[in-house]
């Protein structure tokens, strides 16, 4: 710590001395290390023009240093002064015609001028003249160009080539996380990373990328295991710990998830999202007091985060503390009026206290917010079923059919028709529903439990199973 403070102090002293010299237009001779420290300082402070001025002074004093020309080009590319960057790279080529870094930056500059084919051709020309490890860097540069073109398939293949050339290349492995999502090459990624793990089972990034592939392929247990290997190998790898915990939440393994989030708390400054996840774990475990405690902590850190208030409202609703639940849901809606689940939960809370008028108003709001969500429509219809307003329930389903479609709506209509005593219509529609999705017929019994022992319904199910 003392060494770091001493280093920071010496850099600030160097900067102060340089600025006095620069103000007087008399920059005395500095070694290359001092110039590099100055350039790094001004870049970190986002003073790019000042950094360029330092580089120009460095080039004046060290005119044969290729590195300063390259740094100048990098900086110019970052502020879209591409032609100047190419000029700097041409000057660098005079001193180092075969320097790979110059070629890579030239390709980057050309791609920024939308001369991507020329850039790719330039990179292709050096592939046979570099080492295997260096070729990985070339493939990463190629991937950058494909990403710029939004050609995510070829971006994937370029990164794959980089990783196969240098399986330990951290940049390529890290870039692969995003690339696979953009290209949706989850199966290819799974096969690639299984192959890499066979060669090196202790590469935490390979395990993490494998977990990502399994997650998007809905193989949650394999994803969970892969994430776990990643953070066992690298215990400070927060992404893997958080994603492992996220899968645990999806699988309702709340205790495991809670352990992970507490582990994260030991290494990072907590934010609203982390406290919300911890609160959700406690909510899932039925420890509502602890859940509210963490939701309140999250709200103090992120008072504009609507989801926190929504989750707190859900806890109050589960506790039957309806007034507090309503206040929380109203706050969530105030912060984000575009979430249909907020309206639906508020409506459900009003229904629970017998306020049918407000329940109807907010169910209506929920379907207006997400007219294509069948679950929201079904919730609205079941509200009317619960208060025995079956005609209204049927009207809601009719309205839903004008906005969206789903077999679940068909089964909901069947249940309502049975409740209305319209058995002939209900049985006919039930058989139609079987042909669309037979396995969904179980939802019929959750809406209308009395149908579990209905001879006509059981006969229809048995007949369809026999076909």
Helix content: over 70%
Largest sheet geometry: none
Low-pLDDT segments, ≥5 res: 1-6
The SS-based structural class is mainly alpha
Would you report the number of β strands? 0
Overall 3D form: elongated
Overall CATH class of the domain at 269-370: Mainly Alpha
What is the count of helical runs?
27
Let me know the CATH homologous superfamily of the domain at 269-370.
Tetratricopeptide repeat domain
Query: H/E element string?
Result: HHHHHHHHHHHHHHHHHHHHHHHHHHH
Q: For the residues shown, what is the average pLDDT?
A: 92
CATH fold assignment of the domain at 269-370: Serine Threonine Protein Phosphatase 5, Tetratricopeptide repeat
Beta-strand portion reads: under 5%
Q: What is the CA–CA distance across the termini?
A: 76 Å
What would you say the CATH architecture of the domain at 269-370 is? Alpha Horseshoe
Radius of gyration: 31 Å
Structure report:
The protein is built from 27 helices and no strands. With 467 residues, it is mainly alpha-helical. The longest helix is centred in the first third of the chain and has 22 residues, at 2-23. Helix 7 packs antiparallel against helix 8, helix 16 (272-284) packs antiparallel against helix 17 and helix 20 runs antiparallel to helix 21. Among the domains are: 185-268, Serine Threonine Protein Phosphatase 5, Tetratricopeptide repeat, CATH 1.25.40.10; 269-370, Tetratricopeptide repeat domain (Serine Threonine Protein Phosphatase 5, Tetratricopeptide repeat, Alpha Horseshoe), CATH 1.25.40. The protein has helices spanning 2-23, 32-44, 48-61, 66-78, 82-95, 100-112, 116-124, 132-148, 152-165, 170-183, 186-199, 204-216, 220-233, 238-250, 254-265, 272-284, 288-301, 306-318, 322-335, 340-352, 356-369, 374-386, 390-403, 407-419, 423-437, 442-447, 455-466.
